[in-house]
């Protein structure tokens, strides 16, 4: 992919440039602030913009907001020394948030996610940013890589365990500190409760099978994992299966 790097520190830009090249991508330009980055986006049409937050003239958040007005904006990955702007960053359609000093593996993983982001997902993020969508189209999770963006349509299930919820998605697992009750209230049209500690993504629902007398589990499309189904939620799940 073609990458534009925006950071007000020359040494920071050069280090990122080396990591990008080592990851097998091409640096088309560098910019010292958001204003210059906007001009170079129009000139070079990069696939991805690696964007710092705190910069003179125009900071990264302002730059990302300005990019949402473009017809085909680059994917934005924030690279910054602070995690305090993560939520605001994702509201400006960022697909990644890396904390400095960035290591090679984390950057490579973020760029790989960017390469898989299709046009439909970009449009969903832009719609959410402009208030055209009633719910989020992604889940944010803080991991060892920083803040990660998990597309909602890639999530198989949410599984509660004490104070955290595991998000099982196409790329693996992450932990979030939201509750199942909150998630069910927000995404009840796309997920169904199968147990007091589990919400299942309806599009990935493949079937129900009996494992013992009175005990059932659910099968997923795409993965071999199973989730237990409680007796309380079994009738609702069967009704949903008949509707699919």
What does it look like?
This protein has 244 residues and is of the alpha/beta class. The protein folds into two domains: 132 residues, Response regulator (Rossmann fold, 3-Layer(aba) Sandwich); 92 residues, LytTr DNA-binding domain (OB fold (Dihydrolipoamide Acetyltransferase, E2P)). The chain contains eight helices and 15 strands. It has a seven-stranded mixed β-sheet with strand order 2-1-3-4-5-7-6, sandwiched between helices. β1, α1 and β2 form a beta-alpha-beta unit. α2 runs parallel beside α3. It is elongated. About 5% of the residues have low confidence.
Which features characterize this protein?
244 residues, alpha/beta, 2 domains, DNA-binding
Q: Which structural class is indicated by helix and strand composition?
A: alpha/beta
Helix content: 25-40%
Which overall shape is indicated by the principal axes computed on the Cα atoms? elongated
Cα separation of the termini: 39 Å
CATH-defined topology of the largest domain: Rossmann fold
How would you name the oligomeric state of the polypeptide chains in this document?
Answer: single chain
Beta-strand fraction estimate = 25-35%
Total strands: the figure is 15
**Mean pLDDT over all positions:** 83
**For the record, what CATH class of the largest domain applies?**
Alpha Beta
CATH superfamily of the largest domain: Response regulator
The biggest beta sheet reads: 7 strands, mixed
What's the number of helices? 8
Domain Response regulatory: 2-115
Modified residues (4-aspartylphosphate): 52
Keywords: DNA-binding, Phosphoprotein, Two-component regulatory system
GO molecular function: phosphorelay response regulator activity; transcription cis-regulatory region binding
């Amino acid at each position: 992919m073609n990458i534009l790097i925006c950071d007000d520190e020359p040494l920071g830009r050069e280090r990122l440039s080396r990591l990008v090249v080592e990851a097998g991508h091409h640096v088309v330009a560098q910019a010292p602030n958001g204003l210059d980055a906007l001009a170079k986006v129009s000139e070079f049409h990069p696939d991805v913009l690696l964007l710092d937050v705190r910069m003179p003239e125009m900071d990264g958040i302002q730059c990302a907001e300005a990019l949402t007005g473009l017809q085909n904006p680059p994917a934005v990955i924030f690279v910054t020394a602070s995690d305090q702007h993560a939520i605001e960053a994702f509201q400006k359609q960022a697909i990644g948030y890396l904390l400095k000093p960035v290591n090679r593996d984390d950057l490579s993983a973020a760029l790989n996610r960017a390469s898989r982001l299709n046009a439909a997902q970009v449009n969903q993020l832009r719609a959410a940013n402009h208030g055209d969508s009633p719910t989020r189209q992604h889940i944010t999770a803080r991991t060892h890589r920083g803040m990660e963006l998990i597309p909602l349509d890639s999530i198989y299930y949410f599984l509660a365990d004490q104070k955290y919820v595991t998000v099982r998605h196409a790329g693996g697992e992450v932990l979030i500190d939201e509750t199942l009750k909150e998630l069910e209230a927000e995404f009840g049209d796309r997920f169904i409760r199968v147990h007091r500690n589990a919400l299942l993504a309806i599009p990935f629902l493949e079937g129900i099978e009996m494992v013992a007398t009175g005990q059932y589990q659910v099968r997923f499309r795409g993965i071999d994992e199973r989730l237990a189904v409680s007796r309380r939620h079994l009738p609702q799940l069967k009704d949903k299966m008949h509707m699919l």
